[in-house]
Amino acid sequence: MCRLQHFLLVFMWLPGEVVLQSLSDCGPSAPEHCIAAEPFEYGTIGQPKELSVQYVIPSGFTVSLIALSKPRDDPVPDIQISLITPPNAPIIGGAFQGDVEVTDTGTADTRTLTLNILAVAADDLDRYTTLIQYAGDDIFVATTTAMLAVPVPPNPILTISGYTTGVSAGQSLPLTCTSTQGKPPAQVTWWKSDVEQQQAVYSNTPDASNQGDAMSVLTLAVQPANNQETYQCRVSQLGTEKGRQDLQLNVRFLTGTPSLTGHTNPVNSGSSLTLTCTSGNSNPPASITWTRVGGAAPTGTDQPQADGQHGGKITSQQISLTNLQAQDNGAQFKCTATNSQLGQNHSLDSSTVSINVRFYLEGSSITGYSGPVTSGSSLTLTCTSGSSNPPATITWTRVGGAAPTGTDQPQTDGQHGGKITSQQIRLTNLQARDNGAQFKCTVTNPAVSGSEEKTVTIDVQYAPTNAQVTCNPSDLSDLREGGRLVCTCTADSNPAAQFSWIKDSTTGPLPTGAVVDSTAGTLTFSSLDRTHSGEYSCTANNGISPEATSSGITVNVKYAPVQPTIVSNATTVEEGDSIHLTCQTTSNPPASYSWTKQSGDLPDDAREETVDQTSVLVIPSLTKDHSGTYICTASNILLPGGTTKEYNLNVLCESAKIT
């Protein structure tokens, strides 16, 4: 195949006025403002590629010469082609037809010259030069170049710098992601949860061939909320992603002063009391120390850590004060939470509390149900008391029925030295009958009067059942063309079902004129016709298996006979021959047929036979007298008078035979 090496296109133009603002300074003193092109273009071997050049024609000038070339050594094109086509017509480069196409389009003063390489080959990867020669009071030349190259993917290994193993809240953290050796340099972006971080700063360092490194710097003002967040560096080139790398942050922080609970008032002599110190949210987990004002505090006992916000931990520790006496009344305690990785200045003290015994009941809750459940599944409901001293008792009831027996769960420590009591009931094989059932737990503290109740209502979702169809009119035995029929499908389900209809046990589009409302479950025929006849059934589906399908209903649309047709078994008959005249029509119910002869009776030996809803008139031995017009009449209950068809029978004399 010939490839474009050098070619010259010569055009003559009428003077134009420059209207393109970006090239508005075009003229002999600024020819670089007359023409523009992308300095680098990228193509794929074997694929088409367009190279476009935009140029303007200043007022008072015409274009006397346009030259396009891609020389490696010789900058002067050695092929010239005179333009004899209109200025806006596509131009095929002479001997290079089939390899490249050149078009020049636009207005009189703003033009776009396009070189379309039909299939890029290795020798097309070169620097392309476009030269425009202008003629007016002066003659001047404007040129531009574009390099066509194959892109070079960047190094698949990304480099993220600026972070090692952790960072403290309040610090500024610059994260730098670097991609190397892309041609063109890659586009580097930062993302979090599939949201691009627009504040990141992008830069690149290409060489003369437009190959080089690229980087993006994302600077974060680190807060506790950034802990365990994953940031992702993505690298793309020419619109195609080339790689990505994740970075998860470990942020060190300590938020909120510790709380001290468990103190009550009054305290009876000889009683015991447990104080609990709970730290604020901390990463890594905080350590807790105790202080007793004017005395020595007991050693604390660590409790299981709890999850805090932003991946932090909440640390708890208890001290047990036993055999309290009158002299202990008013004793003051405080606790201190420290995050050692934040340094000595990152310790927080609780408020100071005085010993005071008090029994009370806090709020209770029911957990284990967060939304609808499917029939056949099981559910465990947990009733949890508030903090109580002494521990509360729990009972379960089912509104309007019997509730299962509850099972006590291990108690946990609550605020102010109280206990949290839990009890569970297990609901198995939930069915449609359980939908809307209400379960109530009652929490009672014998130390105080009154009780507290919590109720939960169960939403059991189940598959459709008992799909049924009712129609209006309900009598389907006398449906006629042009009449209206509405059939409604219903089913018992939760959530409400969507309905679909099929005809004759076949999926696919229903006949024209059949309208389905999948929510209401209706199948509507505004004007019945014969194509609507068949067996219809509906299916209810609410996303829970199995579906429910109704029994079929039969739609039998009655219509009058159409004009019958008469077909003879012979085109020419003679005396002595027999003839079979077959009369046929379509109708519902099937038509009745009768034969008559115009101006006379049927031949004595003629007989009528019914075959597959057709009527055949048989005349076994024709005579000349049998010639005439025979009439077939088709009728049914919708057209008692019937519809007719005539047949002209001409019996030839035996002497008319051709021998």
How large, in whole angstroms, is the Cα Rg? 47 Å
Q: What count of helical segments does DSSP give?
A: 0
- The total of beta strands comes to 58
How far do the termini sit from each other?
74 Å
Going across the biggest sheet, name each strand in turn. Answer: 3-10-9-5-1-6
Just name the CATH architecture of the largest domain.
Answer: Sandwich
- Bulk shape: flat
The CATH superfamily of the largest domain is known as: Immunoglobulins
Indicate the low-confidence ranges by residue numbers: 1-21, 72-98
Could you provide a short overview of the structure?
The chain is mostly beta strands and 659 residues long. It contains no helices and 58 strands. The protein has a 6-stranded mixed β-sheet with strand order 3-10-9-5-1-6, with no helix packed on it. Strands 33-40-42-45-44 form a 5-stranded mixed β-sheet, with no helix packed on it. It has a 4-stranded antiparallel β-sheet with strand order 2-4-8-7, with no helix packed on it.
If you had to describe this structure to a student in words, what would you say it looks like?
- There is one protein chain.
- With 659 residues, the protein is mostly beta strands.
- The protein folds into 6 domains: 6-149, Immunoglobulin-like (Sandwich); 159-249, Immunoglobulin-like; 253-354, Immunoglobulins (Immunoglobulin-like), CATH 2.60.40.10; 365-458, Immunoglobulin-like (Sandwich); 462-558, Sandwich (Immunoglobulin-like), CATH 2.60.40; 565-656, Immunoglobulin-like (Sandwich).
- 0% of the residues lie in helices and 48% in strands.
- The chain is built from no helices and 58 strands.
- The strands form 16 sheets. It has a 6-stranded mixed sheet, with no helix packed on it. Strands 33-40-42-45-44 form a 5-stranded mixed sheet, with no helix packed on it.
- Strand 26 (306-307) and strand 27 (313-314) form a beta hairpin.
- It is flat.
- It starts with 5 loop residues before the first strand and ends in a 7-residue tail after the last strand.
